[in-house]
Amino acid sequence: QVQLQESGPGLVKPSQTLSLTCSVSGDSITHLYYYWMWIRQPPSRGQEWIGAIGTSGKTYYSPALKNRTSISRDTSKNQFTLQLTAVTPEDTAVYFCARTPVITEPPDYRGPGIQVTVSP
């Protein structure tokens, strides 16, 4: 069974960089035909797709966030990471990492999520 687990700080100050790591077990992030992605659920707003990394390492970003987003991976640790720069309180959300076979469709596996609050 595929399991994903997010980790990182729960509190980030405005203007700083939010960094999260997703640790994957039960599958390899280099497994063909899957995308590994980040999504978030802000309070009182709908779910938002942040971006993804494919098995070749190619990255895909939301147009709304691409200027502040970087997704990378460490294949030796079977982890992928999210960096979101210049955060504001609007970036406060529960952040999820997930796997999907089709980048435009909902994930088939998702981590439990991590609450990240942007506050002074």
How is this fold's topology laid out?
Layout: E1 3-7, E2 11-12, E3 18-25, E4 35-41, E5 48-54, E6 59-61, E7 69-74, E8 79-84, E9 93-100, E10 109-110, E11 114-118
Parallel strand pairs: 2-11
Antiparallel strand pairs: 1-3, 3-8, 4-5, 4-9, 5-6, 7-8, 9-10, 9-11
- Approximately how much helix is present in the residues? under 10%
Mean pLDDT level: 96
Q: Give a count of the beta strands, DSSP E runs of length 2 or more.
A: 11
The helix-and-strand class reads mainly beta
How many helices does DSSP assign? 0
Termini separation: 39 Å
* Rg, Å, rounded: 13 Å
The topology string of helices and strands comes to EEEEEEEEEEE
* Overall geometry: globular
Question: What is the makeup of the main sheet?
Answer: 7 strands, mixed
Question: Can you tell me the residue ranges where pLDDT is under 50 for at least 5 consecutive residues?
Answer: none
Percent range for β-strand residues: over 45%
Task: Write a brief caption for the model.
The chain is mostly beta strands and 120 residues long. It has no helices and eleven strands. Strand 7 (69-74) and strand 8 form a beta hairpin.
How would you characterize the overall build of this protein?
With 120 residues, the protein is mostly beta strands. It is built from no helices and eleven strands. Strands 2, 4, 5, 6, 9, 10 and 11 form a seven-stranded mixed sheet that branches. The protein has a four-stranded antiparallel sheet with strand order 1-3-8-7, with no helix packed on it. It is globular, with a radius of gyration of 13 Å. The N and C termini lie far apart (39 Å). The model has no long low-confidence stretch (mean pLDDT 96).
